[in-house]
Backbone:
C-alpha cells in the first residue's frame, strides 16, 4: 500500500510549492488583461500560447476528474465558436484587427482562458477576493487614464454640449459628431473612440460598488476607500460623458446591479429575483426571435404574417424597423440561412483584389461594419453556425452562474460581484458593443477580442469548480480578516 | 473638513484638465459644403500674423524654377525617377502633407493636405474656396528642415454669390454658361516664428490665363531650398489679385468680379445672377519638410 502511494506521488507533477507563484502570476495576467493592454495582440498571442502549453500539462494531471467532464463539455461549443470565427469570411476582411495568421489564436484563447479560471479555482493560494480587487483596480486605472484624456481633448459634458458639432479629419467632415466621441488608450496609443466603447469600462466598474455594502469602513478603511474611489471614478466618468441613449442603458444596468445587491443582502428573496431574471430573459429571447424573423426579406407565410403585424402597428414598427439600431439588426439578420450568412461576411474588399464587382457579388459584402450588438455582430463575424454555438456558450454561462450562486461556498459578496460583472458585460454588449471603436480608423474589434469578455471567461472557468469534495473547496475567509491577521506570510498578496 | 477639502482638491485638479483641446475647431455637418456658392468662402484670419515684418519676393520663372503645369520641365526636375509618370507621382495619395506628419490630419485645412490633387467628383468636399482677400493657416507644428519645393493645385471659379435671402437662386445654374478665363497674381505668404516673433516671406507670381470652372487645374510650384528658406515656418496665407476676366477676347472683369457688398440694396426677388470670383484650392505640399 505504501509503495503504491509512493509510486502515485512520483508519477504526479507536484505544483504545491509553486502555488503562490502561480497565483501571483495569474493575478498579474488578470491585471494586464483588465487594463486592456491586451489590445496589443502580440501580448495576447504570446500569453495564450504559453498558457496553452502549461495547461495541457497541469490541468490534465492535477484536476480532480469528477468535475472535469462537465467543464470539458463547455469547452466544445466555445472551441467550435472560436473555429467558426477563424474560418469565417470575415477573417479575410482587411479591417478585421486579427485578420490573417493572428486569428488562429482566437479558438486557443477562448478555450485557454476558461481553463485558467478552472485551474486557479483548484489552487489553494488563489483568493477570488484578491482577483476581483486586481480586476477592478486595473479597470479603474484604465478608466482614469481614458477619463483624463477625454477631459483634456473634449471637456466635461461635451456629449451634451456638442452633440451636433463635427470635426474635420483627413480632408473630410467626420460623420460622427463630437458628442459621440471620447479619447481612450488603445494598445500603446491614444485614439479617438466611440462613446459606447469609452463608457463600457466605467459602467462595468460600477459593479465594484457592491463591495461597499459588505465591507465595514471601521474594519478595513483602505479597502473601503479603494472601492469607494473606484465607484466614484466610475460615476464621474459616466456623468461627464453621458448621452441620452447611454443614460437608458445605464438605468437598465443599475437596476440589474441593485437587484443582485438586494438579493445578496437578503432584502429580496432569491426566488423572486430568479423570476425577474427569467421574465427578462424570456422577453429578450422573444424580442430577438422576432427581430430575426422580421428581418427576412424573402419569407414564407407565417413569417410574412408577423412582418405585416409589425409594420401595421405604429409602436412595433418603430421598435423593429424605425430606428438606427433596428436598421442595422435587420441588415445583419436578413438571409440568415443563405449561403452568404452561414459563414460570415466582409465589410470591404480583400487587399489586392482587383475585380471589385465579382468580389462584392460573390462574397455579398454588407453595407454595415457593425450593429452595436455582440449578438447580431456575430452573424457578420462568425456566420449563422457560429451564432448557434455562441448561443450555447451564453446558455452555459447563465447555467454556470445559477449553479455557482446556488452551490458555491464563496462569500456572498464575491458571488454578487461576479454575477453582476458577467451579466453587466453581456447586457451592455447586447445593446451597445461597438466593434468599430476607433473613429478615424476602420479597424474592427469583435467582442470576442475584448478584454472584459476574456475576464468573464476566466470567471466562468472559476465558477465551474463547485464543492464536490472537501478538497476542492477553499472556505475563503472574508478579505478583511485575511488582511487584518497578524504575522501574515510575506508571499501573500496583502493590501 | 479635511476630507471635504481633499475631495475639492481632487475635483479641481480634474477640472483643470478640461482643456477641450479638440474643440477649438468645430463645424456644423454641412459647413463649406453648401449649394449656395457664397457660403463656401473660407475667410479665416490668424491674428498672430498681423504686424509681421515682410520680405517681398517676385518669383522669376527661370531663377525660381516656377512651373504652372506638370508637363513643365521645371516640375519634372523634382522627380527622383526620370521615367516616373508625373501623374503617378502626385495622384496615388502618397504625396501629401498628412504622409509627412500626422499633425496635418486635423482641421478643415486638412482638405489641402489629404492627397486629393484634383476635384475627383468630390466638389466642395475636396477644396477650399477663397476670395481675393484669401485665408490664413496656422500649423500645429513648426517646420524644422527647410522644404525643397512647393506645389499648390487650384483652379479658377466664378459663381452666383447671391445668398439664401434671394428667392430666385437656382443651385443648378449657379455657374455661368460662358467659357470664361482669367489671369490672376497669386500671393503666398510664409510666416516664420522665431523668438516668439513672426516674420513673413511673401512670394507672388502672375499665373497665365486659365479657364474658369472647366477643370483647368493649375499645378503651381517653385523651388524653395536655400533661396527661400522655410525652416521655422509656422503658417501660410494664400490670396490673389485678379488681373482680368475674359469671355473670348472681351474683357468682362467688372461683370464677373462682384463682391458681397454689391448685394446690398438688390431686389430679393431678382432672378439676375450676381457673379463673383474664387480660387478653389485643392492641395498644398511642401516637399521634404520635417515638422516638430
Residues:
Amino acid at each position: 500500500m505504501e509503495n503504491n502511494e509512493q509510486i502515485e506521488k512520483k508519477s504526479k507533477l507536484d505544483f504545491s510549492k509553486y502555488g503562490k507563484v502561480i497565483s501571483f502570476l495569474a493575478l498579474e495576467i488578470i491585471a494586464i488583461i483588465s487594463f486592456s493592454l491586451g489590445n496589443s495582440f502580440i501580448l495576447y498571442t504570446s500569453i495564450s500560447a504559453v498558457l496553452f502549453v502549461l495547461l495541457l500539462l497541469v490541468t490534465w494531471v492535477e484536476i480532480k476528474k469528477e468535475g472535469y467532464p462537465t467543464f470539458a463539455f463547455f469547452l466544445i461549443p466555445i472551441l467550435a465558436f472560436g473555429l467558426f470565427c477563424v474560418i469565417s469570411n470575415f477573417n479575410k476582411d482587411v479591417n478585421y484587427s486579427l485578420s490573417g495568421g493572428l486569428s488562429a489564436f482566437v479558438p486557443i484563447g477562448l478555450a485557454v482562458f476558461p481553463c485558467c479560471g478552472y485551474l486557479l479555482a483548484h489552487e489553494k493560494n488563489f483568493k477570488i477576493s484578491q482577483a476581483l480587487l486586481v480586476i477592478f483596480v486595473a479597470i479603474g486605472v484604465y478608466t482614469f487614464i481614458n477619463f483624463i484624456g477625454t477631459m483634456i481633448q473634449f471637456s466635461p459634458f461635451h456629449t451634451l454640449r456638442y452633440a451636433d458639432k463635427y470635426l474635420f479629419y483627413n480632408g473630410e467632415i467626420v460623420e460622427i459628431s463630437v458628442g459621440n466621441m471620447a479619447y481612450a488608450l488603445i494598445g500603446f496609443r491614444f485614439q479617438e473612440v466611440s462613446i459606447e466603447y469609452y463608457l463600457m469600462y466605467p459602467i462595468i466598474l460600477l459593479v465594484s460598488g457592491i463591495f461597499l455594502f459588505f465591507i465595514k469602513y471601521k474594519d478595513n478603511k483602505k479597502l473601503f476607500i479603494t472601492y469607494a474611489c473606484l465607484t466614484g471614478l466610475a460615476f464621474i466618468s459616466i456623468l461627464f460623458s453621458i448621452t441620452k441613449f447611454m443614460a437608458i442603458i445605464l438605468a437598465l444596468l443599475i437596476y440589474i446591479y441593485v437587484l443582485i445587491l438586494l438579493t445578496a443582502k437578503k432584502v429580496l428573496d432569491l426566488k423572486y429575483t430568479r423570476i425577474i431574471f427569467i421574465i427578462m430573459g424570456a422577453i429578450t429571447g422573444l424580442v430577438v426571435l422576432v427581430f430575426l424573423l422580421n428581418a427576412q426579406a424573402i419569407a414564407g407565410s407565417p413569417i410574412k404574417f408577423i412582418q405585416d403585424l409589425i409594420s401595421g402597428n405604429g409602436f412595433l414598427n418603430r421598435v423593429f424597423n424605425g430606428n438606427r439600431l433596428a436598421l442595422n439588426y435587420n441588415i445583419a439578420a436578413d438571409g440568415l440561412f443563405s449561403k452568404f450568412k452561414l459563414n460570415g461576411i466582409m465589410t470591404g474588399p480583400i487587399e489586392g483584389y482587383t475585380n471589385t464587382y465579382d468580389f462584392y457579388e460573390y462574397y455579398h459584402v454588407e453595407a454595415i461594419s457593425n450593429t452595436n450588438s455582440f449578438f447580431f455582430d456575430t452573424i457578420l463575424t462568425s456566420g449563422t453556425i457560429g451564432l448557434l454555438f455562441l448561443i450555447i456558450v451564453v446558455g452555459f454561462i447563465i447555467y454556470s452562474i445559477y449553479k455557482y450562486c446556488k452551490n458555491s461556498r464563496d462569500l456572498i459578496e464575491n458571488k454578487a460581484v461576479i454575477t453582476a460583472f458577467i451579466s453587466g458585460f453581456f447586457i451592455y454588449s447586447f445593446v451597445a458593443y461597438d466593434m468599430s471603436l476607433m473613429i478615424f480608423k476602420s479597424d474592427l474589434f469583435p467582442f470576442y477580442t475584448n478584454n472584459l469578455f476574456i475576464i468573464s471567461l476566466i470567471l466562468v472557468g472559476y465558477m465551474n469548480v463547485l464543492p464536490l469534495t472537501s478538497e476542492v473547496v477553499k472556505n475563503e475567509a472574508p478579505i478583511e480578516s485575511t488582511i487584518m491577521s497578524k504575522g501574515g506570510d510575506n508571499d501573500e498578496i496583502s493590501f | 473638513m479635511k476630507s471635504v477639502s481633499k475631495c475639492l482638491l481632487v475635483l479641481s485638479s480634474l477640472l483643470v484638465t478640461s482643456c477641450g483641446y479638440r474643440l477649438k475647431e468645430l463645424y456644423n455637418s454641412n459647413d463649406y459644403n453648401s449649394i449656395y456658392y457664397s457660403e463656401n468662402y473660407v475667410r479665416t484670419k490668424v491674428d498672430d500674423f498681423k504686424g509681421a515684418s515682410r520680405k517681398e519676393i517676385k518669383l522669376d520663372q527661370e531663377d525660381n524654377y516656377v512651373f504652372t503645369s506638370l508637363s513643365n520641365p521645371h516640375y519634372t526636375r523634382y522627380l527622383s525617377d526620370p521615367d516616373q509618370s508625373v501623374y503617378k507621382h502626385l495622384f496615388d495619395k502618397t504625396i501629401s502633407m498628412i504622409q509627412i506628419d500626422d499633425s496635418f490630419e486635423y482641421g478643415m485645412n486638412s482638405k489641402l493636405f489629404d492627397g486629393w490633387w484634383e476635384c475627383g467628383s468630390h466638389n466642395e468636399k475636396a477644396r477650399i474656396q477663397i476670395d481675393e482677400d484669401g485665408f490664413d493657416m496656422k500649423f500645429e507644428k513648426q517646420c524644422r528642415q527647410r522644404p525643397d519645393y512647393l506645389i499648390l493645385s487650384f483652379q479658377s471659379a466664378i459663381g452666383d454669390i447671391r445668398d439664401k435671402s434671394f428667392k430666385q437662386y437656382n443651385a443648378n445654374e449657379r455657374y455661368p454658361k460662358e467659357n470664361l478665363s482669367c489671369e490672376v497674381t497669386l500671393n503666398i505668404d510664409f510666416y516664420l516664428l522665431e523668438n516668439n516673433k513672426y516674420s513673413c516671406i511673401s512670394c507672388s507670381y502672375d499665373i497665365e490665363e486659365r479657364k474658369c470652372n472647366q477643370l483647368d487645374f493649375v499645378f503651381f510650384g517653385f523651388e524653395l531650398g536655400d533661396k527661400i528658406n522655410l525652416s521655422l515656418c509656422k503658417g501660410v496665407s494664400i490670396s490673389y489679385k485678379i488681373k482680368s476676366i475674359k469671355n473670348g477676347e472681351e474683357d468682362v472683369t467688372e461683370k464677373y468680379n462682384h463682391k458681397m457688398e454689391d448685394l446690398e440694396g438688390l431686389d430679393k426677388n431678382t432672378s439676375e445672377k450676381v457673379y463673383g470670383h474664387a480660387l478653389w484650392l485643392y492641395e498644398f505640399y511642401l516637399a521634404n519638410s520635417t515638422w516638430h
Notes: The beta strands of chain A are 168-169, 172-173, 181-186, 189-194.
